[in-house]
Amino acid sequence: MTEEIKLSVVVSLFTWIQRSRQSAKKRSKFRKFLDTFCKPSDYFSAMRLILPSLDRERGTYGLKESVLAICLIDALGMSRDSADALRLINWRKGGANTGANAGNFALVAAEVLQRRQGTVSGGLTIKELNELLNRLASAESRAEKTAILATLINKTNAQEMKWVIMIILKDLKLGISEKSIFQEFHPDAEDLFNVTCDLKLVCEKLRDRTQRHKRQDIEVGKAVRPQLALRVRDPAAAWKKVRCCILHGKEVVVECKFDGDRIQIHKNGTDIHYYSR
Length: 277
Known about the structure:
It is a single chain. The protein is mainly alpha-helical. The chain folds into two domains: 1-176, DNA ligase, ATP-dependent, N-terminal domain (DNA ligase i, domain 1); 235-276, no CATH class. Helix content is 49%, strand content 4%. The chain is built from 13 helices and two strands. The chain has helices spanning 7-19, 23-37, 43-50, 65-75, 83-89, 105-114, 126-138, 142-154, 158-168, 178-185, 189-196, 199-205, 235-247, and strands at residues 263-268, 271-276. It has a two-stranded antiparallel ribbon. A hairpin with a 2-residue loop joins strand 1 (263-268) and strand 2 (271-276). Helix 7 (126-138) runs antiparallel to helix 8 and helix 11 (189-196) crosses helix 12 (199-205). The longest helix is centred in the first third of the chain and has 15 residues, at 23-37. It starts with 6 loop residues before the first helix and ends with a strand.
């Protein structure tokens, strides 16, 4: 059952996927994890950790790297003037004393944690982790957040805590796209998420991978995922794509790009919802 899966199992999955170079193997490993460890009714518990940036149920943590560094320093009981504390605070900076991981906060934090945590897993389960992350997201003061981080540190080892930090920062750097994860989860998962922006709904509606889901129309009150432009390295690459379309008889539309906030307004009678990016 997913709720009883140890965090160590998920960490092993993350580590294997990150190290693998072949997309097909990454996808196969992810699918095997779902089939081996997860009950369909509990997919969301795992998926919200695998795709943390798409989880709207939990809300934001209010912990970017600079604030997270201070909270970790206090949770570990370090002096803010100590060498390791300064490494966390100055995690972006390179140099002889910062190590090879400068610029990657989670790896810098893992180096600091390795000197203070044991190597043995604390046995934290997915259920316990999600509960602690829920508390972290709802905590209003820095002191509350620090106390929860201290609990997480006590229940994990450095390797596990590194991935917890990456989940908090909502950037796992697994080398596998959201699209690939959705396609491996269910053939219709990406389409459903694009018109609902609701990962929990996707996990609940698409429990059976063999059963196709009827394409869902846009629903008032549920945010629609915006269609973003494809990034290219420079204008020459962009024009190359345009010329290719023209040569193949495809219509090309060029429009001005205006700066501003992307927002959706959903109105249903007197009920109005605003959705920002």
